[in-house]
Amino acid sequence: MSGAPLFGKVVVFGVGLIGGSFALALKAAGQAGEIVGFGRTLGSLNQALQLGILDRVGFNVGQEVSNADLVLIATPVGKTAEIMARIAPCLGLQTVVTDGGSTKEDVVAAARMHFGERIGQFVPAHPIAGAENSGALAARADLYRDKQVVLTPLPENGPQRVARVRSAWECCGGVVRELTAAEHDRIFAAVSHLPHLLSFALVHELARRDNRDLLFGFAASGFRDFTRIAASHPEMWRDICLANRAALIDELDRYRAQLDQLRDALQRGDGTVLETTFDVARAARREWAERKRQE
Amino acid sequence: MSGAPLFGKVVVFGVGLIGGSFALALKAAGQAGEIVGFGRTLGSLNQALQLGILDRVGFNVGQEVSNADLVLIATPVGKTAEIMARIAPCLGLQTVVTDGGSTKEDVVAAARMHFGERIGQFVPAHPIAGAENSGALAARADLYRDKQVVLTPLPENGPQRVARVRSAWECCGGVVRELTAAEHDRIFAAVSHLPHLLSFALVHELARRDNRDLLFGFAASGFRDFTRIAASHPEMWRDICLANRAALIDELDRYRAQLDQLRDALQRGDGTVLETTFDVARAARREWAERKRQE
Predict the structure, then answer these.
(1) Which residue in A231, A242, B180, B193 has the fewest CB atoms around it within 10 Å?
(2) A184-294 CATH
(3) Residue A291 and residue B237: Cβ atoms within 8 Å?
(4) Which residues of B touch A244 (CB under 8 A)?
(5) Domain residues of chain B, as ranges?
(6) What is the pLDDT along chain B (295 residues), one digit of tens a residue?
(7) Cβ B216–A249 below 8 Å, yes or no?
């Protein structure tokens, strides 16, 4: 890599899996001059320093963001608004801000409230790189490689700022796509938030039974895969579910209607409905897996 | 391996994943003198011959089972009764019969009807070695290695026949456990049949939407794992769901009650209920994974 890095100074709020991996990836690409981090605990910040995620721990938010080229907000969704309120008055004119939140309409609403006239400097993003592990220790430079990163640009952003944030995520190895925030939230309610809720619900249901040890003792590979996402971060998923609850409730209701139909078929002993449902699902799942393999 | 094999002649009905792997494993262990197969199509039987699963394709059921030491019924659950009816009148006195069915109360009921006074010769089994692939091509000698195999012995079996069938599954590498058929069906409704139904239901729900390509295009690793079992065999899972429908409906109803509670929490914006549910699920899932790793 020759020449000056694309981003001289990068400030990261939240040095867990998302923020830590972003920092490591930008550094590995040689596109970050200096990375300064803020976090909830000194422990996690020191860990991030030791892991080489950060060059420096920040103490004065206003001072650090005033001359930053790029800011990433990668705290839990529930803390995003607070960070926005703190950085909004201090942003340099050249600073672009992005985030790593799993929901976008709520983030955009908070951004409009807190950034005010500077809303154009905030380009919302969602990197699709979930993992059941969290924290700085889980961060890795290749987390975003070949993963989709959804930007939900605002009319106020203008093409230069969108291009700049796009290039940051592309430097991390991401494949950038654009959606509106509303489209994003509908899609992810269906393919991510609902499956997480369903997986948590199954494990919770079994975990509270008297014979839980017997049940879990016979759980095998199907259960393992179905419930992998039930080991996800409870606070993060609470925030995601609440932030996207209108779309999630709608998806949940459609799903419950599916279950009602399957229950009726079971009750009637209607093998045709069951087999047709399973057959459509298998064909779609196989087609999806085949397309993913070709990507 | 020295000395005579434990089973001189083995007859397998159904040469797919379960029956084919059983045959390959017994051969690899040197414990099957000759393996004779019956199947639904000549194509699959010829494939099994070519893959070295069978020594010979059977044509006369009565003749083949009359001097067999061990018979495995590994057809789809819906065909089990028909096979039982055909073999029951011809079983040799020394023959023990086992099966590979995923449900047990229905199999035992069918066995009682068709084996009559010879019911003691049938020792029901369920090897816990699911895979989303099926057919002879998917069979492998190590499918059962370190996997649990549940026997649900009948009072009429007597200890010798149970020991003999146990040793067959142990030769395949299985870890044999014993349950009653009723216990088995309750447990597997909860940890296997329900998760499959839930996974099929999600993919089916999304697959029938106009924007399915957009939705699937953003599905990532959480979706991949949650829906792996939605690529399972539709006919097999129709039969399992119907065979175990009383227990499955009961599990489905408990699960729907869980979803109702989560929906209420979402509607109220009650983050505490969500986080507590997710937290209990994560702790139980992690504990389960840890125990599995130590096994």
Answers:
(1) B180
(2) 1.10.3660.10
(3) no
(4) none
(5) 7-179, 184-294
(6) 457 999 999 999 999 999 999 999 999 999 999 999 999 889 999 999 999 999 999 999 999 999 999 999 998 777 899 999 999 999 999 999 999 999 999 999 999 999 999 999 999 999 998 665 678 899 999 999 999 999 999 999 999 999 999 999 999 999 999 999 999 999 999 999 999 999 999 999 999 999 999 999 999 999 999 999 999 989 989 999 999 999 999 999 999 999 999 999 999 999 999 999 999 999 999 999 999 988 8
(7) no
Alpha carbon distance B219, A146 (integer Å): 14
Q: Cβ–Cβ of A218/B286 closer than 8 Å?
A: no
Q: Which of A283, A83, A1 is nearest to B227 (CA)?
A: A283
Structure tokens at B33: 């003198």
Question: Strand A148-151 relative to strand A125-127: parallel, antiparallel, unpaired?
Answer: antiparallel
Closest CA to B13 of B95, B89, B94, B70: B70
Tally Cβ neighbours within 10 Å of residue B47. Answer: 19
Q: Which residue of A has its CA nearest to B279?
A: A234
In angstroms, rounded to a whole number, what is the distance separating the alpha carbons of residues A181 and A119?
15
A271 vs B198: CB contact, 8 Å cut-off? no
Nearest CB partner across the interface for B280, out of A207, A214, A241: A207
**A50: exposed, middle or buried (Cβ count in 10 Å: 0-12, 13-18, 19+):** exposed
Q: What is the DSSP letter of A135?
A: S
Could you identify the residue written with the tokens 């394709």?
Answer: B57
B-chain residues near A229 (CB < 8 A)? 222, 225-226
Question: ipTM of this predicted complex?
Answer: 0.91
Beta bridge mates, B177 = B150
Contacts of residue A294, defined as CB under 8 A and 6 or more positions apart, other chains included, come to none
- C-alpha span between B125 and B118 (Å, rounded): 17
Entry field: residues in chain B = 295
Rounded distance, CA B36 to CA A135, Å? 56
Residues A286/B144/B110/B184 CA torsion (nearest 10 deg): -90
Report the topology of domain A7-179.
Rossmann fold (3.40.50)
- Cβ-nearest to A225 among B177, B229, B254: B229
Predicted structure pTM score: 0.91
Q: Which of B147, B249, B281 is facing A263, going by the closest CB pair?
A: B249
Residue B32 corresponds to which tokens in the numbers above?
A: 């099957």
Rounded to the nearest 5°, which phi and psi values hold at A253? -65, -40
Q: How many whole angstroms separate alpha carbon B165 and alpha carbon B106?
A: 20
**Distance linking the first and last C-alpha atoms of chain A:** 27
Place of tokens 């200096």: A34
Tokens of A209: 């039974």
Contacts of B269 in chain A (CB under 8 A): 242, 245
